[in-house]
Give the backbone structure.
Amino acid sequence: MDLGLKGKRAIVTGGTRGIGAAIVDQLTEEGAEVAFCARNSEQVESRVNALKTKGHTVSGAAVDIRDPGQYIGWLEAAVGHMGGVDIFVPNVSGGAGQGEEGWRAAFEVDILATVRGCESLMAQLASGNEPSIVVIASIAGLEAMGAPGPYNTAKAALISYASQLGDLAAPHGVRVNTVSPGPIHVDDGFWGGVQRTQPEAYEATVARQPMGRLGTAAEVARCVAFLASPAASWVTRTNMIVDGGFTRRIQF
């Protein structure tokens, strides 16, 4: 199926590693032009060069999204460079830190950066071509998973925010959806670290997966690409669970 992403203009935050990198890969492979950011300038440059070598149209920048001036300035520059924007994927996360700094990072990176990005881009999206927003959340925001903490709370807030934003954005033609991944194995990511340092915990998580393995970033990215695309033209305010059946609740 042709998703209809060729020629679309997309902005992705956190596009050098893990799920974010896979999203950039998938969108560019589908023919979209992508502007992405990350904190590490060397990783950004390396990713841009690799993608351009494949013939993709892409740009990247090192951005601290906790700095509102720097972040919004980059968003505006990306829109100007591409001549508009059709897709926004706020993907970057403050991680699973603890204590006050963990709460601060979850609020500023996961929640506030998503809100700032959506508010900054909404007018441009509304004048875009079949526009959409896909927020990256987590199954950690859906059910009890360990002690209460900033990561889980922030992801729950994103799911709520995206649904409410979708209600307001629909009359302007902008669809807003959420993707909530379960345990996703990335070698240099969270679960890759667990596999190296806590192999028993890793294997216990694999044992809980009905399919007997963790998911991949590419599997999440394909779902993001679908929701972002015109192929999902009648889907909005939906939270897509991408977890291989890991969560046990009944979803109505």
User: Anything to note?
Assistant: The radius of gyration is 17 Å.
